[in-house]
Amino acid sequence: MGALLEVQHLKKYFNSPKGKVHAVDDVSFVIEQGKTMGVVGESGCGKSTLGRTIIHLQDSTDGKIIFDGKDVTNLDKKALNTLRDDMQIIFQDPYSSLNPRMTIRQTIQEPLKLSGKFEGDKLEEETERLMKLVGIEERLALSYPRELDGGRRQRVGIARALALHPKFIVCDEPVSALDVSIQAQVLNLLMDLQESEGLTYMFITHDMSVVKHISDNICVMYLGQLVETCESDELFENTLHPYSKTLLSAIPTIDIHAKKKRIPLKGEIVSPIDPKPGCRFAARCPYAIEGCHAPQQLEEVLPGHFVSCCRVREINHLE
Amino acid sequence: MKDKNEFLQVKDLVVEYTSEGKIVHAVNKVSFSLERGRTIGLVGETGAGKTSIAKAILRILPEPGGKIVGGEVFLDGEDILKIKEKGMRKLRGRKISMIFQDPMTALNPVKRVVDQIAEVVRTHNSKMSAVEATAEAIKMLEKVGIAENRVREYPHQFSGGMKQRVVIAMALACNPDLLLADEPTTALDVTIQAQVLEMINELKKDFNTAMIMITHDLGVVAEVCDDVAVVYAGEVIEYGTKEDVFDHPAHPYTKGLFGAIPDLNSHVKRLSPIEGLPPDPSDLPEGCNFSPRCPYATDECRRGEINAVEAAPGHTCRCCNIKAQEVQK
Questions:
Q1: Burial status of residue A41 (CB atoms within 10 A of its CB: 0-12, 13-18, 19 or more)
Q2: Which residues from A are below 8 Å from B271, CB to CB?
Q3: Which pTM does this prediction carry?
Q4: Complex ipTM value
Q5: pLDDT by residue (tens digit) across B9-47?
Q6: Which residues on chain B are in Cβ contact (under 8 Å) with A244?
Q7: Where in the sequence is the domain holding B220, given as residue range(s)?
Q8: Domains in chain A and their CATH numbers?
Q9: Is B263 close to A254, i.e. CB distance below 8 A?
Q10: What is the tens place of the pLDDT at every residue in B174-200?
């Protein structure tokens, strides 16, 4: 299968009174048709901005977005509307992403109506199909979001995203606000839908065990920069970038007998406003040297395994 | 369960809220005990009643509405539910203190952080001068890793992790015997969470504090707790040492929780979620609260009170079907 989405040197800067915020800085990756790309990182690393920029909720500052073989970086309003049928987003917070004054049926019908493709019986039929698809009981059609639990609300959000048969969905922390038992239900639903509808996901999360479970490939981000990307299993078995190593070692696991080698991290995330060139992790990195303050290149260190670190070979004893 | 010399002993605690004429059964006959220097984890999902247990121990349930209906809480042999409000005020912050979940709302936005901690110190040591209290506060902040040149800043100038450390410094300022930590790391990133958990572990060792850790994250429990109480619909449904509960979970709900978490060390393709939802605490089912979602439930589960039984010495489980489960396995 070919690439569905390709991002080349994508940048997104925001203006702020203190200077330019480099929210996404020179990020490149490819998502294959039907696969899931996990994007992980801590708050403020630009993972949500990346997702929103790709589906054009915000304009990109620089770089290229290639979707389904077409360059979609700059589009007029009409072309953008057509593109939106193919690219959708599921938001993090099912509590604030639904209109409290619309019933579940109205909420799910909204995108169908806006598309102008559904009317009368066809509209009702399609609504019913979507509700069934995401597992919302018929009896809840006239309920309001406040009457639903978090898991069901998130199902409504998923139904809206699926309404127009998109090819690509950005899932922005879709299970973070849910309890574990409910989280598992929603994760299973997303995986089932991927198979039945042939969807491609970009799955944004800060939860490493969730990302490992759902993703085929993973991007690790730190302060707007892509530091490491490769296949999911490869990342966990053969972590190469110093930041990824720290991040993985910090996860509390439920295995109480495992011996843990935690890599302690000093300091806190520095400001993304007008950052100095070079690796942004250098300020906290135990391996940082002079050369880290020069701009870093994302390099294919091992087959399919890209890392942005000038000392990666030396640290990991690779030739 | 254990002998009466435990430092903290909670016995049959019952908390109810009244809302819109309905009685919400938030905490139903919860019992557990804790020694000095040990940490118990209260694990459960949203609305299970974990925070209500902690608030009842501190006697800070929202009024009107929240009420301790029954039970006893012995701290060092004294039933603190019988102490008058004035005496309780002396206890709070000094003997028992609490770390709240959200550091953004637990701090006063218009007061310098050092002054907020000095205030706590002075409230409990009336003889101390303002200068001494400030010195004490600076010492406390240094312990949690906040340098002296930043102590005169306001909360908004701090990052989330630093704010949480200020909240922890405040909770530890008077060297409490019992620390209640309500999801202290939930709002933090993993690398910062790791720092904070490590710090809590160290401080606890230094001060020999007993701690109740409230969390929904079994990973955090694995990291810091000695004992575990699994809370479901206001009841402790399983209770034992961390090894008991993690290595040999006995209650179907606990087993379900472990099955629902994606594990970093395994390659399960599909998670096994617990079907259904927790019960409405104002309308609890007859018999076992978990029975509507339990794959092993029988008629016996749906009537009368379910008593805790021992799955192993010191490891209790509120389920009448432990034996039947064994057979099904």
A1: buried
A2: 184, 187-188, 213
A3: 0.86
A4: 0.81
A5: 999 999 999 988 889 999 999 999 999 999 999 999 888
A6: none
A7: 8-89+179-189+209-328
A8: 3-239 (3.40.50.300)
A9: yes
A10: 889 999 999 988 877 888 888 888 888
